[in-house]
UniProtKB/TrEMBL annotation:
Gene3D superfamilies (alphabetical): BH2638-like
InterPro entries in alphabetical order: BH2638-like_sf (IPR023324), UPF0223 (IPR007920)
Protein name: UPF0223 protein J2S13_001194
Top-level taxon of origin: Bacteria
Pfam entry (one): UPF0223
Residue ranges that the Swiss-Prot or TrEMBL entry lists as coiled coil: none
UniProt family annotation: Belongs to the UPF0223 family.
Amino acid sequence: MEYQYPFSMDWSTNEVIDVVKFFEAVEKAYEKGIQRDNFKKYYHRFKEIVPSIAEEKKIFKEFEKESGYSSYHVVKKMKESRNDQWIAMKS
């Protein structure tokens, strides 16, 4: 992995760690799949740190530009797949 995760200088160390865990979960959804409930926990923690939709979109765009992975599409799939236990994306 040759890219950096987006973060804010205003976040605490623990918040940065939790945001990185969220983006690692996005990567996992693309690379091998992730349990929906696990991803949901990471996303809810991310939203505690980044409650603003505008800021979320900005951070998601930065991550996608760096990694090629769309956080938006993984979150969308999580919300739409209420009965599925796994989220697996196609790159």
